Amino acid sequence: MSDFINSRVGQVNGAGDARALFLTKFGGDVINRLLDKLDSKDMIFNKQLNGAKNYQFPYTGTLKATYHVPGTELSGQVTNQNAKTIGLDDLMVVDRFVPKIDKWMKHFDETAVYADEMANALGYAMDVNNFHEAVLGARQSTPIVDGNVDAIGTVITNDKFKLTGSGPGAVNDVELAEAIRGAVKQAATGFKQKRVPDAIEKVCFIDWERYYTILNAVDTNGFSLFNKDYASGNIESGMLPPLYGIRFKGTNNLPTTDLSSIASPQTADTGVHFYHQGDFSKTVGLIMCKGAVGQVMASDIKMEADPYSARHKGQLLTADYFCGHGWLRPEYLVELELSTLTNA
Known about the structure:
20% of the residues lie in helices and 26% in strands. It has one domain (41-62, 80-337). It is an alpha+beta fold. Helix 3 crosses helix 4 (208-221). The chain starts with 43 loop residues before the first strand and ends in a 7-residue tail after the last strand.
């Protein structure tokens, strides 16, 4: 008895890998790279804006308590007022066209994944603009209301914020960690002197490379380098302990390049509106109190799918939002900046 002729249906033209034509099982249809939760989201003061192009935030001056002289008339104190206006940026959009022929040939459903990716792209842009405004607010050296001398931002400069292996930057991990610790202490002292309420959340945002470099220094040299009560931070979870009431958070979204020449209304490849432009080439960190930056929202992130277009033989997916960003409380903001070095 002779053997059957074995023609493998998975081979290409009867030769090669017997499984070449078999489909691969897609986990969740398509591998989707989702961005983490927006880093600035919980630190922003949000206002809904309807039927207007901007939102005005009033500022009032401070009052002074004095002893009253019996019999004298109280006539009221003179206080200064001012306002900060946050206007809407242009409509931020992202789009993806799905051709009909691709729908025929593919063996997975990508529409929902594209919708998630578009939402994340817009969310990233929102995060970046919030951080831009936070840094710009930290650079404000003149109070909005005359007489409110404490209502200004703070910029702490130190080349030791960058690990270079030799001067003027940090020679090693420990020197970098000590520079950041010193800056956080200075910022915390400044918040106390400016009477920032203790209950307000305070976060130090730094890039992930710098975050883990500091964590490595802390782990190698003992957590006492930062905080003797280190139960809240450990190398296993990759978490730095808080310091002086300020929590550390790693982010990929801090501005680190020179964006001081953005054309009106925007430069497409940056996704940054010209309202928020600035030179961030020396920015390495940001210490931020909750409510320091405002965001006015006319329309939150929305995804839309056009009906099938016979003229274009495909379907267009779009997502957009319409909002504006602006700093509100400079005294709640501290920028960590290089002195002579840059991020390049």
